[in-house]
Design goal:
8 helices, mainly alpha, about 0% strand, 2 domains
C-alpha cells in the first residue's frame, strides 16, 4: 500500500537522522511524535485537503530536522509547523493524545470536589475543617479519573488517539 510505504520511508528517514540528535533534544522537541503525526495525517489525506498539504510540511520538517533545531528562527518555525499539524488533527479530526481526557477530567474533578467541600462546610454551618474538604477533593479526583479513563478507552477503541 502507498500509505505504509510513505509512512515507513518517513520513519526510516527519521531513524537515520536520530543519531544526529542529542537525546535531550529528541525528547524536548517531541520528535518521536512525528511518525505518529505522519501516519494519522496520511490516513486522512485522501478526504482532507489540509492533511494532504500537511504531508508536504512533514516532509520539509524531516528534511531540515537536525539543522533546524540549532537556530532560534528555524526552531521556532519547526515548532509552529508541528503545532499547526497537531492542532488540525485535534480540531478537524477530533484526535487526542493518550490520557488527554484522564488528565482533564481528573483536574476538573479535583476542582469540583474542592468547591463541593467548601459549599458543604458553608451549608452545614460548621467551622472550617480541612478533613472534609480533602474527602470531597479525593472523591472528585477519583471520579474524574474514572470518567476520563473511560472516555480515553472509548477514543482508543474508535482509533481517535494520536
Amino acid at each position: 500500500m502507498e500509505n505504509s510505504n510513505w509512512v515507513k520511508n518517513f520513519y526510516q528517514s527519521l531513524e537515520a537522522k536520530k543519531d544526529n540528535f542529542l537525546p535531550a533534544d529528541f525528547r524536548f522537541y517531541n520528535i518521536a511524535r512525528l511518525p505518529i503525526l505522519a501516519d494519522k495525517t496520511y490516513e486522512f489525506s485522501s478526504s482532507c485537503p489540509d492533511c494532504k498539504s500537511n504531508i508536504t510540511l512533514l516532509n520539509e520538517l524531516l528534511d531540515n530536522l537536525p539543522e533546524c533545531l540549532h537556530q532560534y528562527h528555524t526552531r521556532k518555525k519547526f515548532e509552529k509547523t508541528r503545532n499547526q499539524i497537531e492542532l488540525h488533527l485535534h480540531k478537524t479530526h477530533n484526535l487526542r493524545y493518550a490520557s488527554y481526557y484522564t488528565s482533564l477530567y481528573t483536574l476538573l474533578g479535583t476542582i469540583i470536589g474542592c468547591i463541593s467541600g467548601m459549599i458543604f462546610i458553608f451549608l452545614a454551618q460548621k467551622k472550617f475543617e480541612m478533613n472534609i474538604v480533602l474527602i470531597f477533593i479525593a472523591i472528585g479526583l477519583i471520579s474524574g479519573y474514572i470518567l476520563g479513563k473511560r472516555k480515553d478507552k472509548l477514543k482508543y477503541k474508535k482509533k481517535l488517539q494520536i
